[in-house]
Write a structure and sequence with these properties.
428 residues; mainly beta; Porin; 2 domains
């Protein structure tokens, strides 16, 4: 009986030990399963985040290619008439500015030439454009043109002839322009900002005009600042010419007199000045995006173009005895073109965007402007059919493949002519 009791005790102990070991094993198994499940959750979450970031920066060449059409209004014509502010009381000055509407149509693309994904901190890219655009500003000036027409002077005296002076300015679309450039952008460590540099070459095929530019960019969060400097290439030398017209027929339609009474003009001389070229200058712009409306941007852009110019002066030169040449045109000052643009960019749909604003400028086309763009691919941010915000990627990284902002090419041409006459000092 004692032996039987010992056996039972041994069996009981074995059962208890087996139960304890089984419970421990089950506990480890459950803990392991829980641990495996938790790790899988972390892995899944990380994967989803990486996929979201990858999707946020993913794009193909079509997403970065636009077809655009636009117009810049020319502003109203301005005509000023009145007496020329000289000592000559019979001198009339007519000033007219007639700037035309500028149209443009082009295709533009930006493509990275270095690897770029959600983990890249920098990108090297090329940007190109081809199409109709630019502005050609024409300036024509005339000084000292005599006509056989009586006129009342500012002081109420009747003159037998009129001296005309004109200043005319106009503008038109330049023509087909090709542009190619290279740029580099690098993100900050926390990806909230980037800096960029770029260099471009522009060529207007109509007229063979060429231009180069260099630019810098800085993006910090929702704010952008950029600046570009432009330099025209090619020959800008002033071309001078001249000649003479003995016995100008327009002054004596009934024939030249046999004698030389007072106020008779036996001849006239004229000098011509032609030139122009691509304008150099600079621009500075500020752009603002919106956190919950990433499809919209507002901007301000200020610019200045340095016009070509020259100085030429007529002095009192003695002609034949008792006569002297009358100076009419003393100097031509360079035109400086400057202005400021205020506008907004709206990504209306994944394919269509609108750039509209007002351009306040001098000596060139100005007023309302608008450009409609069609993206061959899609934009991720859009008012209709796209995202309004995205927290998976910083604003700076989202703009790494945006196109560089630049001004269209501006060309100036001038054609001046001045007349001087051998006029009597006194009766002969």
């Amino acid at each position: 009986m004692q032996n039987e009791g010992s056996v039972l005790d041994m069996r009981r102990n074995l059962i208890i030990k087996a139960f304890v070991l089984g419970a421990v094993g089950c506990a480890f198994t459950i803990t392991g399963l829980a641990a495996d499940g938790h790790g899988q959750g972390i892995a899944d979450s990380t994967t989803e985040l990486n996929e979201a970031k990858h999707e946020a920066v993913r794009s193909n060449w079509m997403d970065r290619t636009d077809v655009a059409i636009g117009i810049q209004t020319g502003g109203h014509s301005k005509i000023d008439r009145g007496h020329f502010l000289t000592d000559d009381q019979n001198s009339i000055y007519n000033k007219q500015s007639d700037y035309g509407n500028l149209t443009k149509a082009y295709i533009e693309t930006l493509q990275p030439i270095s690897h770029y994904d959600e983990n890249s901190k920098s990108v090297l890219f090329v940007q190109g454009r081809i199409g109709l655009g630019g502005e050609k500003i024409a300036s024509k000036e005339m000084r000292g043109y005599f006509i056989n027409e009586p006129i009342m002077t500012r002081h109420g005296y009747l003159s037998s002839y009129t001296i005309k002076n004109t200043d005319e300015k106009s503008s038109e679309t330049l023509g087909i322009i090709g542009t190619v450039g290279i740029g580099y952008r690098r993100l900050s460590r926390n990806e909230h900002a980037y800096i960029g540099v770029n260099a471009f070459v522009d060529r207007a095929f109509t007229g063979n005009y060429n231009r180069i530019s260099g630019g810098v960019e800085y993006v910090n969060g929702l704010n952008e600042v950029y600046a570009n400097v432009y330099k025209g290439l090619g020959d800008k030398k002033l071309v001078e010419g001249g000649g003479g017209n003995p016995y100008p027929k327009r002054l004596y339609p009934n024939g030249y007199p046999d004698t030389f009474p007072y106020n008779t003009i036996p001849s006239e001389n004229y000098n011509t000045y032609t030139g122009g070229g691509v304008l150099g200058g600079y621009e500075i712009g500020v752009v603002r995006s919106f956190k919950n409306a990433r499809w919209a941007r507002v901007y301000v852009n200020g610019y200045r173009w340095n016009g070509d110019g020259f100085n030429h002066k007529q002095d009192y030169n003695w002609g034949r005895p008792g006569h002297w040449s009358v100076p009419w045109f003393t100097a031509r000052n360079a035109n400086n073109y400057r202005g400021i643009k205020i506008g907004t960019e709206l990504q209306l749909t994944p394919h269509i965007s609108l750039d509209v604003g007002y351009n306040n400028a001098n000596n060139m086309s100005k007023g309302m402007y608008g450009t409609l763009k069609y993206t061959l691919g899609i934009s991720k941010f859009a008012f209709w059919g796209g995202k309004h915000s995205d927290d998976t990627i910083t604003t700076a990284r989202a703009k790494m493949l945006d196109k560089v902002r630049r001004q269209d090419m501006i060309v100036e041409s001038f054609n001046d002519i001045e007349y001087d006459y051998l006029a009597p000092i006194d009766h002969l």
